[in-house]
Structures are given as structure tokens and as C-alpha cells.
Write a structure and sequence with these properties.
mainly alpha
């Protein structure tokens, strides 16, 4: 891999990281207000204004800053890349996208409940419905994530495809629990509101934890291969 390719890989990684940090910081720092939702009587505040433009601006600034930092660090000799052929970013991306695909039915269901709802609207959802939705979504996300990693590694003709898939399958339940806890924590910091910033904070937090889970699984496989 040429120096230019390595530099841009590092810059792209920092840009993605910058987007996550910028969105999370902005979301956790913004106020909460708006329409109300409740689950069997538990009230949640929300906002129907839909400030998506500010989220796009925040993400753009975060990407630009991350890109700049990545290039500068590379220029002064600081490298943040894994070993050649490590494919850690590829595994993390495939697993995260797979999990998102598995969760898409649940996200669609929740989002459709508020489509066209004016400020002051309340949506009642029973605990039974939520429980079934969570269980089915978790199973779909798990299967899609493991399958996505397996297919991606097979398409890359990776010699450690089977080991990587096995490692992901083993650690993903733990990562899923941690991601859920982190997402609830982000929502708690936002007062469990249903505003756009709260949604962004929860999604970014969960994605970061899941991506770290996939990266650690692949890193563990590479470390064992190096030792053996």
C-alpha cells in the first residue's frame, strides 16, 4: 500500500470518528422539549420540530475536522492504522451495517408511530408489544451482523474468515448488552426525550459500541494468529 493510500485511509477513519464525536457531543448538549410519547403510562418528552439540518451541519464539521487531524498526524509521523491485511475497519463496518439491517423493522415500526404526529400527540405502546419487538429485533440484528461479517470476509478471500465469524458470534451478545446499556444511558442524559438530538445521541452511542465490539473481535483473532 502506497503512502498516499495509507494517509487517506487514516484520514477517512478520523473523519468517521469525528462525525460520531461531533454528533454525540452536540446531541448530549442540546436542550429537550416537544411532544410526548408514553409506554404504558411512562411519559417521555419529545420535539416535533425536526432539526435535521443542524445535525447535517454538525456531521459535516466533524468530518472536516477529523479529516484534517488524520492528515496532519500522518504528516508528522503518527500512524493509527492496523496491520496490512488486518481488515479491522471492514469487519467493523460489515457488522455494524448488518446489525442496522436487522434492526430496521423495529426502527421502522417506532418511527411510523410518530409520522405526521403534531406536537402534543401521545402514542401508547403496550409492554408486550415492546418486549416482542425487542426480542425479534435482537435476534435479527445478531443474525444479520454475523452473516454480514461472514459474507464480507469470504468475499475478501480472508484466510481468517471462519475464525473471525466465530469470534464475532461469541462476543456480539456481550457487545449488544453493552450497546443497549450505553444507549439507555445516552437517552437518560437527554431525559428520555423523543427529540431528534436524543435519537442521534442514542444511535451514535450504540453504533460506536457495536463497531468497537466487531473491531475487538477481529483484533483478537489477528493477535492469536500472530502468536501462533
Amino acid at each position: 500500500m502506497s503512502n498516499d493510500d495509507a494517509m487517506w485511509r487514516q484520514a477517512l477513519g478520523f473523519a468517521v470518528f469525528g462525525i460520531g464525536v461531533a454528533l454525540l457531543g452536540a446531541a448530549l448538549g442540546s436542550p429537550t422539549s416537544g411532544w410526548t410519547a408514553y409506554v404504558s403510562g411512562a411519559s417521555l418528552l419529545g420535539d416535533a420540530s425536526g432539526p435535521w439540518a443542524s445535525q447535517v451541519t454538525t456531521a459535516t464539521v466533524g468530518a472536516a475536522v477529523g479529516l484534517f487531524v488524520g492528515v496532519v498526524l500522518y504528516g508528522v509521523g503518527i500512524r493509527a492504522l492496523g496491520p496490512d491485511g488486518g481488515r479491522i475497519g471492514r469487519v467493523a463496518s460489515a457488522g455494524t451495517v448488518g446489525a442496522a439491517v436487522g434492526l430496521s423493522p423495529a426502527l421502522f415500526y417506532v418511527g411510523s408511530a410518530f409520522v405526521g404526529s403534531p406536537a402534543g400527540t401521545s402514542v401508547a405502546v403496550s409492554y408486550g408489544t415492546i418486549l416482542v419487538l425487542y426480542v425479534v429485533s435482537a435476534l435479527l440484528a445478531y443474525g444479520c451482523a454475523v452473516g454480514a461479517v461472514r459474507l464480507t470476509m469470504a468475499a475478501s478471500a480472508d484466510p481468517l474468515a471462519r475464525r473471525t465469524t466465530r469470534a464475532v458470534a461469541l462476543v456480539l451478545p456481550i457487545g449488544g448488552i453493552l450497546a443497549t446499556a450505553a444507549g439507555v444511558g445516552a437517552a437518560w442524559l437527554r431525559g428520555f426525550s423523543t427529540t431528534v438530538p436524543t435519537l442521534v445521541a442514542v444511535v451514535v452511542t450504540v453504533v460506536l459500541v457495536l463497531a468497537a465490539t466487531f473491531a475487538l473481535a477481529r483484533g483478537r483473532v489477528l493477535a492469536r494468529e500472530t502468536v501462533t
